[in-house]
Amino acid sequence: MSSADDQKRLSGEAAAELVENGMVVGLGTGSTAAWFVKALAARGLSDIRGVPTSEATANMARELGLPLAALDDVKTIDLTVDGADEIGPGLSLIKGGGAALLREKLVWEASTRCVVIADAAKKVDVLGKFPLPIEVVRFGHVHTGRRLADIAAEFDLPPPRLRQADRGMVVTDGGNLIYDMASGRIDEPAALATALKSVTGVVDHGLFLDLADEALVGTDQGVIHLR
Ligand code: 5RP
């Protein structure tokens, strides 16, 4: 296992220890969150319910025998644990590398406590090396993409690109598309977040600001707890 995988495993396992019987738990998406889900299932807690942030996580949790609930079936979520593509100053995050940002943000916003888990390479001084994912509705997405390019130019960033996979456009669990805004650095994340949300065709974006309460970052020396 590579050092990064080991760090992801350590952070996922540490987060699984935060779960107590009786809790409703938000289950993140991605390779780090998968370690958390595995470690949580291994604890064999008898009275927890997981709210998955993607179909992939739901399928994995089902296979591991974790009881699930839909977001609409719970009033609040006690604890959500999820990965990130970048962890910047003040626990500002870029998420959505796995195209699950919309469900992730909905689950995070319904949660009392949000813990981000990651390997050490995810920690950055300035957000933006990882391209910022933006989820857009299919209808008129080329037009929306042009509006996003205008916003990008206002922030001195290059135009975002439609995310493609081997079989064509990436389609999210919600049936939407993803544009990725590669930037190098995002100096004004809050202003950019507001500008992106002002575009009607944008469903949401991967800037998670003021949402993470804590981070458990795996390193070769162990897990570092950031608040
Ligand atoms: C999915 C996400 C993931 O949490 C993010 O991409 C990190 O993934 P990984 O743990 O595989 O590095 O936001 O939409």
UniProtKB/TrEMBL annotation:
GO cellular component terms given for this protein: cytosol
Pathway: Carbohydrate degradation; pentose phosphate pathway; D-ribose 5-phosphate from D-ribulose 5-phosphate (non-oxidative stage): step 1/1
Family, as annotated: Belongs to the ribose 5-phosphate isomerase family.
Example of a GO MF term: ribose-5-phosphate isomerase activity
Function statement: Catalyzes the reversible conversion of ribose-5-phosphate to ribulose 5-phosphate.
Protein's recorded name: Ribose-5-phosphate isomerase A
Signal peptide: none
